[in-house]
Amino acid sequence: MNRAKLIEQIRLKKSFLCVGLDPDLSKMPKHLLASEDPIFEFNKGIIDATKEYAVAYKPNLAFYECLGVSGWNSFQRTIEYIPKECLIIADAKRGDIGNTSSYYAKTFFETYNCNALTIAPYMGSDSVKPFLTYPGQVGGCFGDDFKSRCKRFSVY
What span, in angstroms and rounded, lies between the C-alpha atoms of 58 and 27? Predict the structure, then answer.
């Protein structure tokens, strides 16, 4: 996924819809809790109901990571199920020293094939640069002063 393909999807679907996938087990319909993978089943239902309009999906990693290996498996199944024409944004809010950030980038861009990742620039440019070494991938900066910290890291 690149900018041109995203714009193409926006025009085709006449939509800017980005669907957050924040599967909270405590708020999930009871019938799904009996399934082998309630997180995936919940997400699958949302994806099926929105794929005609959505141009992006944004799974929030906190809801997956707290479940350990089974949560990571649900995350992987979810991103594999998302239609290929949609942007996948890993809402992970990562940011650390350069070497660690390099491995976070590798995890989401290579292992999980996400198109974009939310990042936290609090530790300065060293924590952001590794995410920008992947052509066509996007790191989104968030924080109190994200505009001043991220303007020099524009990917478009």
Answer: 18
Cβ burial, residue 130 (10 Å; 0-12/13-18/19+): buried
pLDDT in tens, 91-129: 988 877 778 888 988 898 889 988 888 887 777 777 677
Q: How far is 22 from 43, CA to CA, in rounded Å?
A: 9
Sign of the Cα pseudo-torsion (77, 82, 86, 88, in order): negative
Q: Of 123, 103, 55, 111, which is closest to residue 83 (Cα–Cα)?
A: 55
Report the DSSP beta bridge partners of residue 57: 19, 88
Place of tokens 């890993």: 90
For residue 12, what are the contacts with CB-CB under 8 A and spacing of at least 6?
none
Burial (CB < 10 A; 0-12, 13-18, 19+), residue 7, is exposed
Q: Which amino acid is at 154?
A: S
The dihedral through the CA atoms of 22, 24, 27, 33 has a sign that is: positive
One-letter amino acid of 126: D
Single-letter amino acid code for the residue at 24? D
Q: Whole-model pTM?
A: 0.83
Kindly list the catalytic residues.
93
Going by the DSSP 8-state scheme, the letter that residue 132 receives in this structure is G
pLDDT for position 117: 85
